[in-house]
């Protein structure tokens, strides 16, 4: 899949009460409307959430914004996720190409995770192999090296998440046996850890993974976890929408 530039960061927050939003909502399949409504509601009330940016002590001993270095305050990050989710759901309703939708979600994940992080959306193909869906911040040679990896509970982070259907944390590639054969790949481009969340369909099937690579040894903070959960849910809506049967023309 091609990497596409996202306008999520620069786009202004749409008004969830506007006629445009109402029109876009009406085009969504009923199963998706609940997610659209949740994103719209959160967008309108996000200013009241996390009014004071939290601070947390990281496991390496420095005090920084919860979750990692170079991060924006909590309120800004919640606003960013709400914006990204609504934009993506409107794109789904308009049949925007899947590549563009996933690229916007990945961009939002990077904005929330902080400076230097790289988000990666991997999608299971018909053969059950993981393919790149949106990973604009990762170099092409790295993506080529991991392309077509098979899900396995004892391999990597995203492959393990796809195999188990569970969140997988890898704070330090050097300390995790699942990365024994692969750790040289991310280490060579400056990443020391990662975490990944499975992207699941409404019936529980794993459709892919949504991961983030870190340049420091840490685990994701609470806001990162909540943000990626929402982004992964919208990514699932995009994947299911893209794979829906196309009605035969009369």
From TrEMBL:
Gene3D superfamilies: 3.30.450.40. Residues 80-249 form the GAF domain. Residues 1-22 are annotated as: Disordered. This is GAF domain-containing protein. It comes from Cognatilysobacter lacus.
